[in-house]
């Protein structure tokens, strides 16, 4: 998350439901380790038990100035839009996904 500055200033490209308990969120971000070149990064959250999402048509308008937070507590994890430190704060986030695990994949930049 440090390399991509918590997705601050990035762009949310897509939210894809792989199955009812697995979602993939893809962002375009700048990478500090690559001279701030752009790349895409996909986060896959599994074992989802709670979420608040917005309509796909509104994704391009999501303000990413506060970035995202990935929070781990016990055997749970949260992917929250904004600067948060606990899963209890998920209700304050514009969008969030709470689940059991999260993984990421770096991808070539594309629009």
Protein described:
The chain has 111 residues and is mainly β. It has strands at 11-19, 22-31, 37-46, 50-52, 68-73, 76-81, 96-99, 101-107. It contains no helices and eight strands. Strands 1-2-3-8 form a four-stranded antiparallel beta sheet, with no helix packed on it.
Q: Based on helices, strands and strand pairing, what is the structural class?
A: mainly beta
Q: What does the overall shape look like?
A: globular
End-to-end separation: 21 Å
- Helix tally equals 0
Strand composition percent: over 45%
Element order: H for helix, E for strand: EEEEEEEE
Rounded mean pLDDT is 93
In helices, the fraction of residues equals: under 10%
Query: Unreliable segments (pLDDT under 50, ≥5 consecutive)?
Result: none
Spatial order of the strands in the main sheet? 1-2-3-8
Please tally the β strands and state the result: 8
Largest sheet: 4 strands, antiparallel
What Rg, in angstroms, do the CA atoms define?
13 Å
List descriptors.
single chain; 111 residues; mainly beta; 4-stranded antiparallel sheet; globular
Short structural summary:
The protein has 111 residues and is mainly beta. It has no helices and 8 strands.
Question: What is the topological layout?
Answer:
Elements: E1 11-19, E2 22-31, E3 37-46, E4 50-52, E5 68-73, E6 76-81, E7 96-99, E8 101-107
Antiparallel strand pairs: 1-2, 2-3, 3-8, 4-7, 5-6, 6-7
């Amino acid at each position: 998350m440090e390399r991509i500055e918590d997705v601050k200033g990035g762009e949310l490209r897509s939210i894809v439901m792989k199955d009812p308990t697995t979602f993939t969120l893809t962002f375009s971000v700048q990478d500090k380790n690559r001279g701030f070149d752009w790349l895409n990064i996909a986060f896959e959250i599994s074992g989802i038990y709670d979420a608040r999402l917005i309509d796909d048509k509104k994704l391009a308008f999501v303000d990413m100035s506060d970035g995202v937070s990935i929070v781990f507590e016990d055997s749970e994890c949260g992917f929250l839009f904004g600067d948060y430190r606990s899963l209890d704060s998920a209700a304050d986030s514009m969008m969030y996904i709470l689940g059991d695990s999260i993984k990421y994949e770096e991808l070539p930049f594309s629009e």
